[in-house]
Amino acid sequence: MATHNGSEGVVKSGSNNIGELKSWTLSESTETIEDTIMGDAARTFTVGLKSWEGSLECFWDETDTNGQVSFANGSTATINLYPEGASSSDTYYSGAIIVTGFERSAALDGMVEATISFTGNGALSTATV
Q1: What DSSP assignment string belongs to 63-123?
Q2: Which H helix or E strand runs over 53?
Q3: Where do the structural domains in the chain lie, given as residue ranges?
Q4: 107 CB contacts (<8 Å, ≥6 apart)?
Q5: DSSP 18
Q6: Which among 87, 79, 77, 78 has a CA at the least distance from the CA of 128?
Q7: Burial code of 7-27, b = ≥16 C-beta within 10 A, e = fewer?
Q8: 3-state class of 35 per DSSP?
Q9: Measured over all CA atoms, what is the biggest interatomic distance in the chain, rounded to whole angstroms?
Q10: Which of 32, 35, 69, 94 keeps 20 to 30 A from 113, CA to CA?
Q11: Burial class, 87, CB count within 10 angstroms (exposed 0-12 / middle 13-18 / buried 19+)
Q12: Which homologous superfamily does the CATH classification assign to the domain defined by 6-32+48-128?
């Protein structure tokens, strides 16, 4: 059984690393469609459409033009999410996205941070490096 340290994670916009990355999330879901008919003793369902979404947390870097800046709110891009790093035979997830939010925050006793939210635009693929 393999486990991985979160610090191995990488996110790329196309082939460009996202700078100052702290964390990322990826959520997949599937709709269910009810297909119960009269006379059934229990409700039944069938598989509907799949979707995916996620977010990135970074230390804000306005000079990361091929990374953070390329994920401007409302933009489209290809994202590649590597939970175990980007070395040979590592698994990663890839797909087209629409950036749905870009939040910046600052605190007196902390760093300026950015949270980038996205929604998948089409299928999410799983591959290995």
Answers
A1: T-TTTGGGG-TT-EEEEEEETT-SSTT-EEEEEEEEEEEEEEE--TTS--EEEEEEEE-S-
A2: strand 45-59
A3: 6-32+48-128
A4: none
A5: P
A6: 87
A7: eebbbbbeeebbbbbeebebe
A8: coil
A9: 64
A10: 94
A11: exposed
A12: Hcp1-like (2.30.110.20)
| Bridge partner list, 99 | 118
Please state the separation of Cα 104 from the chain's center in Å.
Answer: 18
Residue-wise pLDDT for 2-59, tens only, equals 788 888 889 999 889 999 999 999 999 999 999 999 999 999 999 999 999 999 999 9
Enter the tokens of residue 19: 């700078």
Reported residue count of the chain is 129
Each residue's pLDDT tens digit, 50-64:
999 999 999 999 999
Answer yes or no: are the C-beta atoms of 55 and 116 closer than 8 Å.
yes
